[in-house]
């Protein structure tokens, strides 16, 4: 067995994170923390966050890099959910109407944003970061003056302006988590939110099929080498537009799925905190700034979310205080820094 080849294939970040996760799981067992609850939280958080991480794949494959403007798609996903609640819809109707409203809005927004990115080639991640801050700040004003009148959404005093956190209990809370989990399932399967995982698998399958299609291949060629793509008749700007539109749409879908599982919509500055964990997850999974696959999404999301889930109870007991947030910041920013400082072609 060639350990050097295995090490090179796994990559240093994944090796360290995997080892740390295993150590934390062993520590949790030794501290008598119920592992069934931990595994249930890991699978749930995986399903909640995986689509947001999946949104990074089209932007990386099209040559734009990490989409730090993920909040753009998130905002239109929130708008879709808000309109659904305003209409008084419940259950699956509420969920699918939210998607039906959010997706077209995300397509339009992603197209306009893509046009701008085509004007600033080479600076996409920097520009995306600041555009994200600008959009979120502008929407903080919009949430205060938005013409919503449903008392579940507005402040109790005054009856205008949206609350910071909105409950989905009466509309779509836990729809995917509770679906396909009948009582007759064995106990070890009940810890897995089957509906939530299958919905991610459906979207991941669609993205994978698209990547194998003629359009998907053209997009990856445009992302890997602009000169080679141009010499073969591929319209690079059009492929970049396609990549950012798909990324924005997946972000809109992702936040609706995340919110129904979480049970709440979070407005105002909350969309700002979506991009960094998603970027850290896909980079931990083995993606680079030029290459990303579905397997990178699965591995990275599982490791990142698993580490955060296990770290909270274990470190709280060992340190008699909360250090989970500190660990989250170190992991997310440290892995992003590692990946951004790699040269093209280096092992991730």
Automatic annotation (TrEMBL):
Membrane topology term: Multi-pass membrane protein
Pfam hit, one: BPD_transp_2
Localisation per UniProt entry: Cell membrane
Transmembrane segments annotated in the record for this chain: 12-30, 72-89, 95-115, 127-146, 188-210, 241-259, 271-289, 294-315, 321-340
GO molecular function, one term: transmembrane transporter activity
Keyword terms of this UniProt record: Cell membrane, Membrane, Sugar transport, Transmembrane, Transmembrane helix, Transport
GO cellular component, one term: plasma membrane
Annotated protein name in UniProt: Simple sugar transport system permease protein
Organism, as annotated: Tissierella praeacuta DSM 18095
